[in-house]
């Protein structure tokens, strides 16, 4: 049986690589003991702002066996999105993850293929794929599976490739060989804390989501509070500051996923182009993009907030 576990785990990791994932780690499905008090405190401090959905499914969020019946293993996967070219630095900025096709679609397809391969190879295996759209603590599982450590900016970090990647999970009802957590390599560095213009990283490893530029420009549906005027450093959708300044991201390498390449017009757009953007241009440039989440009106609101 142990031999099978080893073979099955090896097969899954080889398949993940074939599908373009950066890395794959496996953990035993169960209650995330260390995360429970942390999540409770974070919610109590209202660090989720208007993201009320974070309060839902507290138990499921901490225990995948409550989310996927009969689940035994959590397979965590990383997919690189670091672009080979970035936007005009004089322009309003989008978070790099949103340059191309919405990652939810890209990764979901890869996960479905991975599950299918597992079923073809191993047999009657059931499970569910998750891409940041269900109550799963992605970063905690990725860290538990040895894919990196959670940095002071609360993103997953690896020494080899930094942090510009998506995290996804396949939760299945198959016993596998489990990986071990890695060590923290942030040391005494506080680059991310020092660089955050809205002081959203309130202490090392704790981000007040309700002060984060990504929260204001994507999640918040009401008007952006005026107290934050002049603190957004030209970010109109998301924000990469804490990742951009992280020394480990010197090791980021460009992705090789054609679907993550930006629309040709996107990189050269100037502030004036963004200020005059029409609904048609928005729909053309962001046809299948994650930017659709904020909608045309939301992006217009953000640009207006930066411009005024």
UniProtKB/TrEMBL annotation:
Name the family the entry cites.
Belongs to the QueG family.
Give the E.C. number(s): 1.17.99.6
Keyword Electron transport in the entry? The reply is no
For the ligand (tRNA), the binding residues are 221
Residues annotated as binding [4Fe-4S] cluster 2 are 196, 212, 239, 242
Asked if the record carries the keyword Mitochondrion, the reply is no
Give start and end of each 4Fe-4S ferredoxin-type domain. Answer: 177-206
Specify where it is mainly localized. Answer: cytoplasm
Q: Where is the active site?
A: 132
Keyword annotations: 4Fe-4S, Cobalamin, Cobalt, Cytoplasm, Iron, Iron-sulfur, Metal-binding, Oxidoreductase, Queuosine biosynthesis, tRNA processing
Class of this enzyme: oxidoreductase
- State the Gene3D superfamilies in the record: 3.30.70.20
Kindly list the places in or outside the cell where this protein is found, as annotated in its UniProt entry.
Cytoplasm
Instruction: Tell me the cofactors it needs.
Output: [4Fe-4S] cluster; cob(II)alamin
Summarize the subunit comment: Monomer.
Instruction: State which pathway it belongs to.
Output: tRNA modification; tRNA-queuosine biosynthesis
Cite a single GO MF annotation.
epoxyqueuosine reductase activity
Lineage of the organism: Bacteria, Pseudomonadati, Bacteroidota, Flavobacteriia, Flavobacteriales
Residues bound to cob(II)alamin: 61, 132, 156, 167, 214, 239-240
Q: How is the cofactor bound?
A: Binds 2 [4Fe-4S] clusters per monomer.
GO CC terms on record? cytoplasm
Give the reactions, separated by semicolons, that this protein catalyses.
epoxyqueuosine(34) in tRNA + AH2 = queuosine(34) in tRNA + A + H2O
Gene Ontology biological-process annotations: tRNA queuosine(34) biosynthetic process
Described by its record, this protein's role is as follows: Catalyzes the conversion of epoxyqueuosine (oQ) to queuosine (Q), which is a hypermodified base found in the wobble positions of tRNA(Asp), tRNA(Asn), tRNA(His) and tRNA(Tyr).
Q: What is this protein called?
A: Epoxyqueuosine reductase
Amino-acid positions noted as binding [4Fe-4S] cluster 1 in the UniProt annotation, renumbered to this chain? 186, 189, 192, 246
């Amino acid at each position: 049986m142990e031999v099978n576990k080893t073979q099955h785990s090896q097969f899954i990791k080889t398949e993940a690589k074939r599908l373009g994932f950066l890395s794959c780690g496996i953990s035993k499905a169960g209650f995330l003991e260390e995360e429970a008090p942390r999540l409770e405190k974070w919610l109590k401090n209202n660090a989720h702002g208007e993201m009320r959905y974070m309060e839902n499914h507290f138990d499921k969020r901490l225990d995948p066996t409550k989310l996927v019946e009969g689940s035994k293993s959590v397979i965590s996967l990383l997919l690189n999105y670091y672009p080979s070219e970035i936007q005009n630095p004089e322009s309003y900025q989008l978070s790099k993850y949103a340059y191309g096709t919405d990652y939810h679609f890209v990764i979901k397809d890869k996960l479905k293929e991975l599950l299918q391969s597992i079923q073809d190879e191993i047999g009657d295996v059931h499970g569910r794929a998750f891409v940041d759209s269900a109550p799963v603590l992605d970063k905690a599982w990725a860290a538990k599976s040895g894919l990196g450590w959670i940095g002071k900016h609360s993103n997953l970090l690896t020494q080899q490739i930094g942090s510009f990647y998506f995290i996804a999970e396949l939760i299945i009802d198959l016993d596998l060989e489990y990986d071990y957590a890695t060590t923290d390599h942030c040391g005494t560095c506080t680059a991310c804390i020092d660089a955050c213009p809205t002081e959203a990283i309130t202490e090392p490893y704790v981000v007040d989501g309700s002060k984060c530029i990504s929260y204001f420009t994507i999640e918040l549906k009401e008007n952006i509070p005026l107290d934050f005027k002049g603190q957004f450093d030209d970010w109109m959708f998301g924000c990469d500051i804490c990742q951009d300044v992280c020394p480990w991201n010197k090791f980021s390498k460009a992705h090789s996923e054609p679907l993550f390449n930006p629309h040709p017009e996107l990189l050269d757009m100037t502030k004036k182009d963004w200020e005059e953007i029409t609904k048609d241009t928005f729909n053309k440039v962001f046809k299948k993009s994650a930017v659709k989440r904020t909608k045309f009106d939301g992006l217009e609101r953000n640009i207006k907030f930066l411009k005024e």
